[in-house]
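Hi C.,

You asked whether I'd gotten around to modeling the 751-residue construct. I have! Everything is below, sequence then structure, no commentary in between.
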Amino acid sequence: MKIEKLYINAFAKFSEETFHFEDGFNIIYGKNETGKSSIHKFIEGVFFSFKKANTSRRYWTEDLDFYRPWNSKKYSGFILYKHNGSKYRLERDFAKERDKQILYDEITGEDLSNKYKQMPNQERNILEIQTGLNQNIYRNTISISQMKVKCHESLIEELKTKLANLNDTKSEDISVESARQLLKEAINKIGTERQKTKKHYKLLKRIDFLEEELKESIKIYKVLKEKEIKLNRLREKKEEIKKFLKEKKDHKKKLIMSRNYTKYKIAQKIKEKIEEKKEGIKQLSYLENFPFKKRDSLLGLKKDIDNYKERLEELNQEIKDFKKNEEVPGKSVFEIGAIIKQKYKHFEELDYKLLEELIEFSRIEEKISNLRFYMLLSFIFFLFALGGLFINIFMSLSILPSGLFLYIYIVKKKRFFIKKEKKVLKDYLQRFNVSSTNELRKKYLSYKGLLFKKELCEKQDILNKKKEEINKIFDKANVKSIKGYEKKYTLFIKYKKLKENSKNLEQKLNVVLEGKDYDDLVDTVKDYYSNSILPEYNELKYRKLEDNIFNIQNKLMKIKEDISRLDTEINEGMNNLDNPVSIEERLNMAKIKKEQNVIKLRALKIADNFIKDASRKIHREFAPQLNKTVAKTINKITSGKYNNIRISPDMKIKVIHRNGEIHELSELSKGTIDQFYFATRIALASLLTGTDDLPLLFDDSFVQFDRERLKNTIKYLYHLSADRQIILFTCHQRELDIINELGFEVNLIKL
């Protein structure tokens, strides 16, 4: 196999870069950070991707993000290589969302990807299928990175497998270790009674579980059967109740028919009465706007008019009486008021009582005569008392004070009151502008006559207004008298009662119809049979029937709920319950499988022991082949200093010196140790892949070699480059100096 060209579309720092390689010795030279390791990693990535190996799921190594281009969405490239006479172009898209590898025939352009399609559940890439080289062997043999000359521990298992695969014909097609691994996997897969994560333990637990499940299933199955019996009984009872309920509803329907028929008859009579009332209302409809509310006002006005007429007669009579004393002018109310205000000032203060008192005051002469009588009487009484002194002194002394008191009290007091009354009389005569009480009396009578005349005018005005109000009511009522109004009022009351009766009948009809339309009721009953075949309607019986139906419906609903609940429980139970027969079948199958596992485990252990013994025999026979190949290489790169070694199955290397002494590899210098591991890698590359034509890649792998060791190694590699491609990545000038010194022709690529 030879790599001819790398094309990096976008990877790490490179973008659209092309690198060409030749069949022999190729050197990629550049200072640190120029991208040598990136090119080395690009080759590995194209061949194997950056997915972690030996995982069932897609897990990615940190290299995927480390080498992702910073300034490009692209992350891809391809390698052009020759293998077994054909030329291939292997393309790789590194992005994890795509992670695609495509193989083309470079000559024909044919897509060969499906030809190398990976097996299900087995991650093998195209290069492994073509050359037998997986990523682990690649990293531990033909590709050597910086400071990683020593083989990784993971290579030990690869080595054991390859050595064990050699049979007597020295063929590697039959994998003994793989067979043992398969046997171990099969044994491990079955497991033991103590391995909780394995099949056999789980099978035993499943048997225990199935046995318990079978018991529980039988128990639940019995419960469900009992519920099913109860369910069937409830369904029978439900049908009986439904039949009974139907009979009750039919009877209710007949009662409703009877009630409707009765309602119809009652409603019909009410309708007839309503029509009769409406006819009367129609005849008296002209009274709709009759002013019935004015009746009280009208009667009040009539009474007021009668009262005013009576008062007018009284006033007229009084005026006539007053006219005997003084003529009362026939003026209006306003003129009479002006006369009173002008001529009879202050007369509103005068009344009959005061007038009589003043007249009484005017009788002064009569009062003075009376006073003289009292004075004479007092004097006689006094003389009588003095005369008594001569007859009986004691009686005279007792009478004398009484006479003196009588004289003082009566005479003095009378004089005081007469004087006061004269003054009051004088003031009043002056106030009323008269000279005597007779003149005052005459003027007062004239004043009263004017007042009566004024009141007469006022009453007459009010009477006229009352008559106008009555006439308005008469006009509105379209009558001419109280009698006519009363007649119409009586008819209006009849009209009003007709309307009220009609309204009450309408309400009664609505109560009978219960809010329904009369015509609908007629339509309902028109197809009924005669009333004689319908049961007699009784409200109490009807209510009892409704209660009975309600209770039956509740009972039916309860039974339906019980049926639904039981049906749900049975269905859910049956859905969640495995059939006991089915469980028993699975239990028997599990027990059979348990016996098969026991037999299989016994057979697998016998086979593993047999193959193990055979593998040991093969390793003893073919391990010398690895020792010989490594010894041949180490002899060349150490100038014959070491030519005999022993490599154990766990890759422990022991060196046999020329004098026959055996030394551990760790006893030698670091440079020599690296030389031994380098030789081991070269030998293992051929042994593990079965071919000597795979390229060898070295990324600053010889930094610990001194110049002499490096020179011998370059000579050996140049010798190998005649048969296989060598690609050396270095940042050291000494490799180039040695090549120039030795005069070797190489393909030099400078970065």
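If it helps when you're writing up: Residues 152-160, 162-174, 324-328 have pLDDT under 50 and may be disordered.

Thanks,
B.
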